[in-house]
């Protein structure tokens, strides 16, 4: 079959493939950097109530994700001394810095922790935006693709393209 838009098709494939690669690479670079920065938080904060760390949570069932995919959220660890257990409490992104402890045992590295928390918040926001953009590309269901491809194929067989010679004869 003769394609009239081969050049445009190749440019589109290259352009959109590159954009997808950039988004996926950006997402994973953000996640890997978050893991490294979380390790820094672990080193700079004492093992006391009030530590802020990243914890990985599963996506809700109604949100599209692949099996085992997790997303990072900030948590503050609190110790229940009566029971001897540690509990993590989620921290809202907008109020993250309010939850940072800067006194007593946390004072030694408070400024470094503050800077890392700001960077981590920005990385999470970049990750979320890249993931959201990819999610918007998911488009219709696979059934729609199959049905549409079948319709295009039927149309092409039912109404074959006129050759250039045939088109010039009718003019």
Structure, explained:
This protein has 171 residues and is an alpha+beta fold. It has one domain. It contains four helices and three strands. It has helices spanning 6-44, 110-136, 142-158, 164-170; strands at 52-58, 70-80, 85-90. Helix 1 packs antiparallel against helix 2 (110-136). The chain is elongated, with a radius of gyration of 26 Å. The model has no long low-confidence stretch (mean pLDDT 86).
Low-confidence stretches: none
Structural class, judged by helices and strands? Answer: alpha+beta
What profile does the largest beta sheet have? 3 strands, antiparallel
Number of strands: 3
Q: Which band does the percent of strand residues land in? A: 5-15%
Order of helices and strands: HEEEHHH
Whole-angstrom Rg: 26 Å
Helix proportion of residues, in percent?
A: 40-55%
| Arrangement of strands in the largest sheet | 1-2-3
Number of domains: 1
Task: Give the overall form.
Answer: elongated
Number of separate helices = 4
| Overall average residue pLDDT | 86
Please give the alpha-carbon distance between the first and last residues: 23 Å
Describe the structure concisely.
This protein is α+β, with helices and mostly antiparallel strands.
Name a few traits of the molecule.
3-stranded antiparallel β-sheet, 53% helix, single chain, alpha+beta, 4 helices, 171 residues
Record the SSE blueprint.
Elements: H1 6-44, E1 52-58, E2 70-80, E3 85-90, H2 110-136, H3 142-158, H4 164-170
Antiparallel strand pairs: 1-2, 2-3
